[in-house]
Design a protein that fits this description.
7 helices, globular
Length: 148
């Protein structure tokens, strides 16, 4: 079963159980899928494209929650974090920083990177290898630390 079908099934469950937080998050995700389908002209998204859309939705909610928290608006931050948690169930399990570091070190050796000038090259390869399994900020921080 594809991710989009799984989202639809979870939406039905959320409607039946009257879980408004989950329903809001899932409807937004479904909308993002539909928008991506119509933009690309194709009716079927690849699993990588679906993964990127889900990551983007989760990141948007976490960023919003951070802004709300910084402004002491916990009443607005908490629903955003709850929605992010609902959406994260569709992502593969995240890697630990140690596991990410191993991939970064192996990639640096593989590419022969020698300094910050090679950061873009390393980031591109590592980001593809760890798609959906690691946050870009964490990857970037580790790559910077290793290349400095």
């Amino acid at each position: 079963m594809g991710v989009q079908q799984e989202v639809m099934n979870k939406m039905k469950e959320a409607m039946k159980s009257k879980d408004t937080v989950a329903l809001t998050a899932l409807r937004a995700l479904k909308s993002a899928f539909m928008l991506a389908n119509t933009e690309g002209g194709a009716n079927v998204l690849s699993s990588e494209e679906e993964l990127k859309i889900i990551q983007k939705q989760v990141k948007q909610r976490k960023d919003s929650a951070k802004v709300f928290s910084d402004q002491d608006r916990l009443d607005l931050a908490e629903p955003e974090l709850a929605e992010a948690k609902v959406l994260e169930q569709f992502l593969p399990e995240a890697l630990s920083e140690d596991e990410i570091e191993k991939v970064v070190v192996a990639t640096i050796e593989e590419v022969g990177a020698e300094g910050m000038k090679d950061m873009g090259k390393v980031m591109g390869i590592v980001s593809k290898k760890l798609a959906g399994q690691a946050d870009g900020k964490i990857i970037s921080g580790i790559v910077k630390a290793k290349l400095s």
